[in-house]
Amino acid sequence: MRYNSGEFLYNGIFNEDGTFSTPSPGEITIYDKDRNKIPLGQHGYGPGADFSFGIQPQDQKLIQNGFYIKYTGYILYNYSKK
Fold it and tell me: What radius of gyration do the chain's Cα atoms show?
C-alpha cells in the first residue's frame, strides 16, 4: 500500500501475525427495484470475488426493470503506518 493510512474492503480475515484466511462467503440477498426480497434459487461463489445466483423462472419478471443485491461477506479494514 502506498499511503500512510487508509481503508479497504476485503472478504477475508487478516490476522495479526500477517497471515490471512477467507471466511464463509457471506450471504447474498436479492431485491426488486422497490426493495422487495426475491427468493434465491441457487448461488455460487468463486474463484476470487466472483459470485452467481439464480432465481425461479416465474420470478424473472421481478428483476426485468432492475434489481439490488446485498452481500454481507466484506470486512472494512483500516490501516496506518507506525
Answer: 17
Q: What is the pLDDT of residues 39-53, one digit of tens each?
A: 888 877 777 667 788
Judge contact between 30 and 63, C-beta under 8 A: yes
Other CB atoms within a 10 A radius of the CB of residue 77 amount to 13
Whole-model pTM: value is: 0.65
What's the rounded Cα separation, in Å, for the pair 36 and 70?
A: 12
Report the distance separating Cα 66 and Cα 62, nearest Å. Answer: 8
CA angle 50, 17, 25 (to 5 degrees): 20
Contact predicate 75/2, CB 8 Å: no
CA–CA gap between residue 39 and residue 54 (Å, rounded): 9
pLDDT tens, residue by residue, 16-26: 888 887 766 77
